[in-house]
Every structure is written in C-alpha cells, then in structure tokens.
Design brief:
Elements (H helix, E strand, L loop, with lengths): L2 E5 L4 H12 L3 E6 L9 E5 L5 H8 L4 E4 L9 H22 L3 E5 L11 H15 L6 E5 L3 E3 L7 H8 L2 E4 L4 E2 L1 E3 H10 L9 E3 L9 E2 H12 L4 E4 L2 H15 L7 H8 L2 E2 L18 H14 L4
C-alpha cells in the first residue's frame, strides 16, 4: 500500500479522504495547523502551506501527494492568491524537492470561468502551475469537482436547514452538478495508481447528464428532509444587496461575498460530459437523492439539523 501525503486533511473532504485511505490500507500523512488526536496509520504533520519546512516533512518518502487544501472564501483577491496559488506552488516545490512524482490536485469547476470570480481565477492559476510551471516534471492529474456534499459539510448545511423550514432559496434559474464526498474521495484514491490519467484534467459528478435544475434540487432536498418544500428563485439584485449587507456587518468574515454572488448566479455549473473520468477508471456510485438523505440523517444525529 502507498504512503500518501494529504493537504486539507482537517477539512470536510480531507477527513473523508483520510478515513477512506486508511480503510484501503494506505498510510496517511496529513498537514495540520492545530493538534489532532492520534490514529493508527495516520501521521499528523504540524505546519502550513506557507511553511516550507513542514511541507518537506509532509512529503518525505511519500508515494503520492493529494493536494486538497484551498481557500474557498476570502475578502479579497490577495486572500485567494495566497491560499490557492502560492499554496499550490509551495506543494509543487515540496513534491519535486522530495522526488515525489505523483501529484493529484483538487481544483474546482469554477476554474472554467476565471473571469467570473477571484476564486475561479485563483484555481485556474493553480492548475497552470502544473501544466506550464514547475509542476511539468510531475505526473499530475487535476480534478475539478462541482458542488460537493456529504456528512460533515457546512457549506450546504444552510440549504438543508431551509428545507426543514419548508422553503429553499436558490440563485436565479440555472443548472449545476453535484458529487458526494465519498465518490470524490474514491476517485482521488483510485487515481494514485492510474498512469493513463497523468496529464489529464477531469470534471467528475454524480452521473446526472445535464446536471440539476435549481428547482429540482430544492425538491430533492425536501425529500431528503422528509417534507414538502417551496423552491424560491432569488433575483441577482437581491443577492447582491444581501452581499453588501453581509459585508457591512461581518466585514472580513462575510460569507456571502460579491465574489460568491457572481459565482452563484452563473447559469451553468454543469460538469462537461467529455471531461468526465473514463468509466474504466471511475464512475459515481452514490445517487444524489440517496446521498442527500444520508447527509440529512447524519446532520440530525449530530444535532446540526
């Protein structure tokens, strides 16, 4: 089995990835800023993406790097650049310095529209580091996930809470793809020993060809919760006003930033069919209605919902 170096291991996707990797018999080394409880087959490395010494310890002797860490919300372009561009550049340098060739980079579907948001711009720049920068000596694969959900996720939690109250407010009409965290992590681990994937970028999803209409997804959330919901389409101008208010109240801690509103209001976040991973390598196993139900059940057990 492999020694895998993981960034973002304390986050939502990272925790699923560590658990699944250990379950497959791999030994995991993961980066953390804070003390973590010990676990078999898991070594926590104290450090951060801006501390090269800790990255050197993280990747030493590793068979593969899975770079999950990234900034999804920031007050400025500088914040996205520091986390997503400089952080990726530092991981590439660490991998090359340690002689680790396999590098799996978790980007985002947002990279497809770099002019739309600072987040998407920073994710595309991080990809370019692998394709055209120092990462050219690595056996890299880029994954562009769509919206990821599952137990432990706080990003989609508010949608579940709205559904419990009988309504789901979503951006203007559009379509988007989703993927269960378990399916995404299974793909990331499958890629470790997949030479045919070297130098490729993939856009995985739940297998729904044309993605989800916002209304249909709201209804699916209602079914997962066990009650009828009313989908509400929020006009873009109202979302922008809410973003302005959130910025005034929470300033640098605002969640609904202008960057996010531009991202949310884009009408097409459907994974490109031709960019899906080949079926011989991976295919989604979790139907979204089942995954949403399992997520809602987990939220209830943990007292989140």
């Amino acid at each position: 089995m492999a020694m895998i170096a993981i960034t973002g291991g304390t986050g939502f996707v990272g925790r699923h990835l560590i658990r699944m990797g250990i379950g497959r018999g791999h030994h995991i080394r993961a980066l953390t800023r804070r003390d973590q409880p010990p676990a078999p087959h898991l070594d926590w490395i104290s450090g951060a993406l801006d501390r090269p010494d800790s990255l050197a310890r993280l990747v030493e002797g590793a068979d593969a790097v899975i770079h999950v860490a990234g900034v999804i919300n920031a007050a400025s372009r500088h914040g996205f650049a520091a986390g997503n561009i400089a952080g990726t550049e530092a991981m590439i340098a660490a991998a090359e310095g340690a002689g680790v060739r396999r590098f799996i980079h978790v980007s985002s579907l947002a990279a497809r529209e770099p002019g739309l948001s600072d987040y998407g711009w920073s994710k595309l720049r991080s990809e370019e580091l692998l394709k055209h920068g120092g990462g050219r000596s690595l056996d890299w694969t880029i994954i562009r996930p769509p919206a990821v959900y599952g137990p432990g996720d706080r990003e989609m939690l508010e949608l579940f809470r709205m559904a419990r109250r009988g309504f789901v407010a979503l951006p203007p009409a559009g379509r988007f793809s989703v993927i269960a965290a378990e399916d995404l992590c299974r793909l990331l681990l499958d890629l470790i020993d997949a030479p045919a994937s070297h130098g490729h970028s993939y856009e995985p999803d739940d297998g729904t060809i044309e993605g989800w209409d916002h209304r249909d997804f709201a209804l699916a959330l209602g079914q997962a919760i066990g009650r009828r919901v009313r989908p509400l389409s929020m006009p873009a101008r109202l979302l922008h006003a809410a973003s302005f208010a959130d910025g005034l109240v929470r300033r640098g801690r605002a969640k609904l930033t202008r960057d996010r509103v531009r991202y949310f209001c884009h009408p097409d976040w459907v994974s490109t069919h031709a960019a899906r991973p080949p079926a011989s390598l991976w295919r989604a196993e979790i139907a979204t209605p089942d995954g949403l139900k399992a997520t809602a059940d987990w939220y209830r057990r943990e007292g989140w919902l």
